Amino acid sequence: MENNQDTLQRFIFESSPVRGNLVHLGLTLQMALNKQNLPSGLRQSLGELMAASALLAATLKMNGSMVLQIQSKGTLKLLVVECTCDDDAPLRMRATAKWSGDIDEQQHLFDLITQGQFIITLDPKDGNQAYQGIVPLEGDSIATILENYMLRSEQIDTRIWLCCDGNTAAGMLLQKLPETMNQTTVEHDADIWNRVGHLANTMQDEELLHLPAETLLTRLFHEEQVRLFAASNTQFFCSCSRDSVASMLRMLGDEELQSILAEQGQIEVNCDFCNTHYAFDKVDATQLLMTPVVAPSQPNIH
Ligand SMILES: [Zn+2]
After folding, report:
1. Residue (of 225, 237, 185) closest to 6 by Cα position
2. What residues pair up with 202 in beta bridges, in sequence order?
3. pLDDT given at position 186
4. How far apart are CA 125 and CA 87, in angstroms?
5. Quick one: pLDDT at residue 182?
6. 3-state SS record for 84-116
7. Could you tell me the distance, in angstroms and rounded to a whole number, from the CA of residue 42 to the centre of ligand 1?
8. How far does the centroid of ligand 1 lie from the alpha carbon of residue 99, in Å?
9. What is the rounded CA–CA span in Å between residue 248 and residue 242?
10. What gap in Å lies between CA 119 and CA 109, rounded to an integer?
11. Gap from CA of 245 to ligand 1 centroid (Å)
12. From residue 110, how far is each of 34, 44, 116 by CA, in Å?
C-alpha cells in the first residue's frame, strides 16, 4: 500500500478537544538519507525524528523553518531534522547525523547518548520572533522525549507513536487542546483523551507503517467519530547553495582561507545534508574575500 507515502494528514475527534496528525515518509526519507552513509540504527532513529518533526510542524501551523536536534556528548553527537513550512506547499525536510567511533547494529540509540539535550528552534518567516528551547532529554524514546517536551514547555498533553523500518517512517500524534472553548461537550465525554490513547496503544508498527490513514483510523477508533482532512505532501529539499557556502566561508576570515588554500590548493566543502560538493579555487576565494561579511541573525534563547 504505497498510495499514502509522503503525506501528512490531520484528523479530529468530533465534538471533543482531541485532534491528531498522521504522517508517512517514503521518498522524502529515502532522498534525505540515501546519500549519507548512516549506520542502520541511526538511520532508523533519524527517520523517527523526521516523522516526529512533520507531526509537530503540522500542529504549529507556522510559515518558516523548524529545527529539531538531539545533541549529545556520547558516541552520538547530533541528530538534526529541519522542516520548512510554506502555506500550501509541500512540507520540505532535510536531516543528518553526526557521531564518532563505531556503532554496532544492536546498540540502542540511548546507549549512544551522554548528557543529551533536545533543542527546538523556530524561525517564522513572517517577521515573528525566532524562538529556541533547550531541555535535557527526558524519556527513553524519541516519542517520549517529545511528549515530555510538549507537556513541560508547552503545557499540552501529547501522545506520539513513531516507527521507521529504514525506508519508510510513519507517525501518529494525538493532542488534547485546552478545554476552554467547548466546556459542555468536554464534560459530556471527559474520558475521551484516555480512551483514544488506550485505543491508539493497540496499534502495531506494521499498521502504522503501511495502512492508509482512513483504514488505520477506522480500525483503531471505530466507535469514535473521527473526521479526516485532506492530505498535504512532504518532500526532501536541501537549502544549501554555492552562495550560502560562500558566506559561511567568509566567516572563517582571510587568514584561515589563505592557509587552507596554501595547504590544499582549493577550498572544498561537502553539504552534510545532501552531500553536494562545493569547490572554490584561488580565483573564487579571492572574490569571496572581497565581499563583506554579513553576520547571520541569532535566534533569541528563552
Ligand atoms: Zn545540501
Report:
1. 237
2. none
3. 47
4. 11
5. 53
6. EECCCCCEEEEEEEEECCCCCCCCCHHHCCCCC
7. 19
8. 19
9. 10
10. 17
11. 10
12. 23, 13, 9
Closest CA to 142 of 158, 153, 131, 155: 158
Ranges of the chain whose pLDDT falls below 70? 1-3, 179-188, 289, 292-302
Cα–Cα–Cα angle for 46, 52, 55, nearest 5°? 145
Global pTM reads 0.90
Domains of the chain (ranges; CATH) run 7-236 (3.55.30.10), 242-290 (3.90.1280.10)
The C-alpha atoms of residue 95 and residue 7 are separated, in whole angstroms, by 17
Helical axes 40-60 vs 142-154, angle rounded to 10°: 30
Place of cell 493532542: 175
Burial of 178 (0-12, 13-18, 19+ CB in 10 A): exposed
CA angle 84, 172, 4 (to 5 degrees): 75
Burial label for 85, CB within 10 Å (0-12, 13-18, 19+), is buried
Q: Are 6 and 27 in contact (CB under 8 A)?
A: yes
The Cβ-side half-sphere exposure at 1, using a 13 Å CA radius, reads 13
Q: How far is the CA of 242 from the centre of ligand 1 (A)?
A: 10
Cell numbers standing for residue 248: 559561511
From CA 74, how far away is CA 113, in angstroms rounded?
5
Q: Identify the pLDDT of residue 183.
A: 52
CA of 57 to the centre of ligand 1 (A): 21
Ligand 1: distance of its center to the CA of 124 in Å?
A: 21
C-alpha cell read off for 293: 561579511
Burial group, residue 217, by CB count within 10 angstroms (0-12, 13-18, 19+): buried
The C-alpha torsion from 73 through 77 and 79 to 80, rounded to 10°, is 100
Helix axes 242-252, 282-290, angle to 10 degrees: 70
How many residues are there in the chain? 302
- Cα(13) to centroid(ligand 1), Å: 39
